[in-house]
Design goal:
Layout lengths: L1 H43 L5 H42 L1
Length: 92
């Protein structure tokens, strides 16, 4: 009886191990299918890559900095022009 019980437990353990291996294989297969579907969906949506997004973000930040610098320069030139016009009016 002991030998039969041990063999039954060995068979059950082998069966459980095989079932776990099959479940793992099925999980990997489903994961691969889902990943392929997601990639296809993203390609069809024409989504930009992270690198493209970062490049455009950096360009926008540089343009904003340049715009602020130019706005300050314009304000400085307008102030100088106003002083020059005031000085010219006082000389007349």
């Amino acid at each position: 009886m002991t030998q039969t019980t041990g063999r039954i437990f060995d068979d059950i353990a082998r069966l459980v191990t095989d079932a776990a291996g099959m479940a793992e294989g099925a999980r990997r297969e489903v994961e691969t299918i889902i990943r392929a579907q997601m990639e296809r969906m993203l390609r069809s949506m024409d989504v930009v890559s992270r690198e493209e997004f970062d490049a455009v973000r950096d360009m926008a930040a540089a343009a904003r900095d340049e715009n602020e610098r130019l706005a300050a320069r314009i304000a400085e030139l307008e102030a100088r022009l106003a002083r020059d016009e005031q000085d010219a009016a006082e000389l007349e």
